[in-house]
Amino acid sequence: PLFRSPLPKTLADLSFHRVKESVPEQYVKNAIASTLASKMVYKEGTRFIESQPKESLADIALRYVEKEREILRLREALEGAEGLEEEEKERILGLLERGGARTALNIY
Fold first, then answer.
1. Of 59, 61, 42, which is closest to residue 2 (Cα–Cα)?
2. C-alpha distances out from residue 66 to 23, 30, 44, 60, 105, Å
3. 1-18 tens-digit pLDDT
């Protein structure tokens, strides 16, 4: 997903399955790292990145992606949940969105 997401949709749909055989591994790794770094800086800001220990950044970045996926699963579960009023759902969804992966990582 991290390598596919920045590709134009048509290109990804037509040829993403061939990436492993036709794109050098180092290029894929660099593209993933660049996409992940851009996503974190965009969502959290440069101060957040700069405040983290450099030796921990790679681990934090991987955990960040895991927490984003977890939040997405929670959002999907909540959207399909019954028994909650729409206003309550929207409020909880808003809290999930604002809290985000950074809060899920317990990094403030």
1. 61
2. 25, 19, 16, 10, 10
3. 667 776 778 877 888 777
